[in-house]
Amino acid sequence: MQQPNRLKPFFENIHFERDDNTMMVNFGPQHPSAHGQLRLILELQGEEVVKSRPMIGYLHRGMEKMAENMIYNEFLPTTDRMDYIAATSNNYGYALAIEKLLGIEAPRRAEVIRTMLLELNRITSHLFWLATHALDVGAMSMFLYCFREREYAMDLIEDYCGARLTHSAVRIGGVPLDLPSNWIDDCMSFLDVLEQELKTYEGLLTENRIWKMRLENIGVITPEMAKSWGCSGIVLRGSGIKWDLRKEMPYGLYSELDFDVPISYTNDSYGRYKICIQEMKESSKILKQLVPMYKESDSQLIAHSPNYISAPKEQIMTQNYSLMQHFVLVTQGMRPPVGEVYVATESPKGELGYFVVSDGSPYAYRMKLRTPSFQHTAILEELLVGLQLADVVTVIGNLNIVFGEIDR
Amino acid sequence: MRKYTPKDNVQRQAYFSDRFFVSPPVPRFPIDSDEIFSKDFEEINYSINVQEAYIEHTHLVIVIDKSFLLSCVKLLKEKLEYDMLMELSAIDYLSARDGYEIFYEFLSLSKHKRLRLKCFLQKDESIPSLTSLFKSANWSEREMYDMLGVKVTNHFNLKRLIMPDDWYDHPLRKTYPLQGDEAASWYEVDKIFGKEARDIIGPEQRDPAAIDRYDTTRFARLGHEVPHGMDISQFEPETSISYQEEDTSKIMKKLKPEESVVLKRRR
Questions:
Q1: Closest Cα of chain A to B122: distance in Å?
Q2: What's the whole-model pTM score?
Q3: If you ran DSSP here, which 8-state letter would residue B106 be given?
Q4: Within an 8 Å CB–CB cutoff, is residue B105 touching chain A?
Q5: Closest CA to A136 of A32, A277, A41
Q6: How many contiguous H segments (helices) and E segments (strands) does chain A have?
Q7: Any idea what DSSP says for residue A53?
Q8: What is the CATH topology of the domain spanning B28-153?
Q9: Complex ipTM
Q10: What is the pLDDT of residue B243?
């Protein structure tokens, strides 16, 4: 560590001057395969990685600090910018954490709509992952195919909330809108298309010689390693540990839904690819089950809790008391009970947790955002050692890291 | 008299609070209400002095002294099957209690339970690192040090993680200002032109996306085209918009609705 002073300024790249045989390579933060702003300092012996040091912080926006200086509803759109590939999963995790803190529950129809959006987001996120990962490894056509289907899914989300990437479609206590009239039919026809296309993807990749050569036995994460590094999501399931929060510690509607949790015992990148494909199928299975649930549910969309949640729009415009209460909640913000809550949900990347400390004021005293990609980047320190330089790109792409949620 | 703003907490405060309003506490349950937790607690309480323990939101929360931290985590990991450390960080209580509260969020895959271990740390004290037991503590502890300035002992690489290495202060502390230093923003103006020039030059523009609407050197406005660098702050002449092909040959034919296909949705 340098000790900079006036005469000796801080030099970023001073460590690159070395006397031994190894070579230092600076990978990123502008490298297209760094999936955002990852900077890797790699020490190479020939083409083999001897030491790797990931460096982050290039996308740091101080979200935890922002959370301490915003009222609870104000912070919700900021959570979109964490895992911007699947924004609703962040919104949902946040809304669920605050709902647990307040001790309220979203109405059933809101919960159904949320789960629909969550699973649709899971599909878009996995498609995006498959597209960029395949592009990194060299399969350009996969990128085009996956992005086409992702586009359809984003059209569906756009139909619902008007936004394609940063949805903010989940609110604390429910959802703001009901589904548009023919949304469910559109969604079902999208799932049919997806089912067909998934077969194409699998036909192109699963037995593809190059794909297998690049992925098999690359980035092996043993179960012990996965547990110790705090991995979650596909990375944990790829190490043969059957752990999906939707199944093991269910929240929302997931205890009523019937779906499987695919796992792989190969511990390598290829296994994780297979899980990803399976999970998209499971998500579409869940979406199909949600349709009858939606039709059976009441039309109430937002929880009734005058102390914390504003009334629905038409009530605000017609009822005096609702308007007054809405005014207070918007200008001052809700004051949740004093206490702490940690709520974890299964985002497409893994365990997304919100730790909220409330001191009873409208601003959170402390909010810690536990994001899956953070630990999945930390593991690169150990995982890349011993791999070839070309495999580094495979591993980074395969771990599905998104920098919005690493730097926060 | 100047308005008093506390120095130890410069974060946003509620602008109005009812004198008689008291937020209710989040409900806490005794440990005997959960079978697995009560067994775990007995095991921990047997060897470690537990200061406080309760169940909050399906989590077992255990408050211990920091001297027992390593032995307690070891017990949790090796005997009680809390095999994952999901999260760790600190809460800044420097103004209220002159220290930090450190929390560790554990998950047991076999028991499907979550446990939160908490300990209080005085301002100048340091906390032992958990990297020998859980590798996930590596970056989390670095982040905690970076963001809150909590010192960690026995960490093999305790460097700043998110902020640059030469950054001053720790951003998540309650004393960390929300806005930049006002004097610093005038520094160059004062140094080069003197304080008198402040009015003429104006404050430093720190928004990279800011646009001056009277700037005719970099921007042109449709319908208000003027020569480069002309001063339009007093008067903005209007230029009529006309198209080249209006009187002469047409570049693009007019589309006739009856001859064209309108797509209802994306193909």
A1: 18
A2: 0.85
A3: E
A4: yes
A5: A32
A6: 17, 6
A7: E
A8: Beta Polymerase; domain 2 (3.30.460)
A9: 0.86
A10: 63
